[in-house]
Design brief:
The protein has 307 residues and is an alpha+beta fold. The protein has one domain. The chain has a four-stranded antiparallel beta sheet. Helix 2 crosses helix 3. It is globular.
């Protein structure tokens, strides 16, 4: 059967098909990175919103506790102490996040445990439970659910270092309770921020991927709930890692910026430089940064000095 002229004209030639495919490929190469950036930006906005909501817990906790700021995490006395009532029940050594969440009525755990030796409904030990509500986890790193290896870290050195000076004295807290009025610059004092954990002590190429419940100091997220300030004293002071060899730092996971919540509960995205961190030539984070945005009084002092 012979094709009519109109049927011949309706057919596409090979060259025309190749042109169409090339155009589609070009459009995809333009659109895919843009869509990726848009998704990253959306996650960054969501992260900021989460910090603002949780941040209300700082103010509410202070109002209900004689103007005291939340502790970083209450110390380990034994397998069942300290305990604190959070949304959902008593919890063994809850972090600042769980305490803040409880103040705004958001439970951090579906099955909070009262002892380290207990195992929750998901098979996690009482001191290493995973956050059940996504608001406690930065959406850019949604798998960082471990309460110890968390995605958000607290300025515990200046706002709530509740580690003990004397293990025999269960209330010999190193720098807690901190009265809110002691913070002379609440709008200029970091409270909570995205944290990369002790991986900060390593060059970028040597940082390992996050692993839930890991204690590897080179991995992202290790000791993430403790956020060290830019300037630390590895000889006479302390850092998140009790080995005194590794420090934590803010994580610029949102397009080279870290999301930061301040004591006055406003939140914004800042670079490591703006936060005062010292980046060494190999990309690791040094010890001699600037603590102006961390000390509570706008001075660049080390954590061991009274702010």
């Amino acid at each position: 059967m012979v094709q009519s002229d109109s049927e011949k004209q309706a057919a596409f030639s090979l060259i025309e098909l190749l042109v169409v495919v090339s155009v589609i490929g070009l459009l995809m190469s333009i659109l895919v990175p843009s869509l990726s950036k848009a998704r990253q930006q959306a996650r960054g906005v969501k992260c900021l919103a989460q910090l603002r909501v949780l941040g209300q817990g700082i103010t509410m906790y202070a109002m209900e506790n004689r103007d005291v700021l939340v502790p970083g995490r209450l110390p380990k006395i034994d397998d069942c102490h300290w305990q604190k009532d959070v949304a959902g029940g008593l919890k063994y050594r809850p972090t600042f996040l769980a305490v803040m969440g409880a103040q705004v009525g958001i439970p951090a755990f579906d099955d909070p445990k009262t002892c380290r030796t207990e195992t929750d409904m998901f098979g996690e030990p009482g001191d290493r439970q995973n956050y059940s509500n996504p608001i406690f986890v930065c959406p850019q790193v949604s798998s960082w659910t471990d309460e110890r290896n968390g995605s958000y870290g607290y300025n515990y050195q200046f706002l709530g270092n509740s580690r003990l000076r004397d293990s025999d004295d269960i209330e010999s807290f190193k720098n807690w309770p901190i009265v809110a009025t002691r913070i002379r610059s609440p709008s200029g004092t970091v409270a909570v921020a995205d944290c990369m954990g002790t991986a900060a002590s390593y060059p970028p190429g040597e940082r390992g991927v996050y692993v839930n419940n890991s204690r590897d100091e080179f991995r992202f997220g290790n000791e993430g709930f403790n956020l060290d300030p830019p300037r630390v004293d590895p000889e006479n002071g302390e850092m998140a890692s009790l080995s005194q060899r590794h420090r934590t730092a803010a994580d610029t996971r949102h397009r080279n910026r870290a999301n930061v919540l301040f004591v006055d509960t406003h939140a914004e995205a800042l670079t490591l430089k703006k936060l005062g961190y010292q980046t060494l030539p190999d990309g690791s984070i040094g010890f001699d940064g600037n603590n102006t945005l961390w000390s509570g009084n706008g001075r660049n002092v080390v954590w061991t000095e009274d702010p």
